[in-house]
UniProtKB/TrEMBL annotation:
Top-level division of the source organism's lineage: Bacteria
UniProt cross-references to Pfam families, sorted A to Z: Peptidase_M78
Protein name stated in the entry: IrrE N-terminal-like domain-containing protein
InterPro entries membership: IrrE_HExxH, Rad_response_metalloprotease
IrrE N-terminal-like domain sequence ranges: 39-161
Organism whose genome encodes this protein: Aequorivita aquimaris
């Protein structure tokens, strides 16, 4: 795997002498590298980097829904600053910032992946991340707690859990009713054929959200719904159809759903 982004983030953390920057504002962090940071209204863009002759300007859309999202966007742009010297003017939006939109990333080369990888390591350093979640059971609340603790977006937390292979989970990204991306952790012992470009299973929680037009239909503890293993996975003739959980995060604005499935 390409670890250029995470390796650069580790260099930056070593340089500033921090194991965790959750208590440092992005403005203060960037000023230490003589980078100008601004939050302002950006049309059709979540973040922007402008590399001048003497200083770099990084902008983040102040209308973003959460401070965690703003922080991740800022860290993503900072990744471009350190990794992609030839990038003089660049806009990022929900598509280029999306971990799961691999088709868009492929069109743009590896730059967006590297910037996301940089942001994840910078905001959620592996050692601190592992220490925080050790012995904690996996649940929707854990994802929210990690997001709050490290001040980063829910989506980045999910991908961090997956790429570090910390919990046995299956992740599916659905866009406009079709599966665009799926991946499972190594410890999740299930078998699944390629489901890319297919709709989610009829009896899945993801399909419930599609039929509800991406509206939130479960709250609190009900966010993790019991399903059968056979809902998403193929069973061999010796297997029992045991219980799994499915937790979905719909985004009505972009018509996307992130679905997480794990053993009960």
């Amino acid at each position: 795997m390409n670890q250029k982004g995470s390796n650069k983030a580790k260099e930056i953390l070593d340089l500033i002498g921090c194991e965790d920057i959750s208590d440092i504002s992005m403005e203060d962090l960037m000023s230490g590298f003589d980078i100008i940071y601004k939050e302002e209204d950006l049309h059709n863009s979540d973040g922007k980097i402008v590399r001048g002759n003497f200083r770099t300007l990084i902008k983040v859309n102040k209308s973003l829904i959460s401070e965690q999202r703003k922080r991740f966007v800022a860290a993503h742009e900072l990744g471009h600053h350190f990794l992609h010297k030839k990038l003089e003017l660049h806009n990022d939006n929900a598509k280029t910032l999306n971990w799961f939109n691999i088709e868009k990333q492929a069109q743009k080369g590896v730059q967006e992946y590297e910037a996301n990888d940089f942001a994840s390591e910078l905001l959620m350093p592996e050692n601190a991340f592992r220490k925080y979640i050790i012995n904690k059971p996996f649940s929707p609340q854990l994802i929210k707690d990690i997001s709050t603790r490290f001040k980063t977006s829910i989506t980045s937390v999910i991908f961090r859990l997956l790429t570090l292979d910390i919990v046995p989970v299956f992740v599916v990204f659905i866009s406009n009713g079709k599966i665009h991306y799926w991946r499972k952790s190594n410890d999740l012992k299930v078998w699944i054929p390629d489901i890319t470009k297919l709709p989610p299973p009829e009896n899945s929680v993801a399909m419930e959200y599609l039929e509800a037009d991406y509206d939130f239909i479960y709250k609190g503890a009900e966010k993790a719904q019991l399903i059968s293993k056979s809902t998403w996975f193929k069973l061999n003739y010796q297997e029992d159809d045991i219980d799994f959980y499915e937790y979905c995060i719909p985004t009505k604005q972009y018509k996307t759903i992130i679905s997480l499935i794990w053993e009960a």
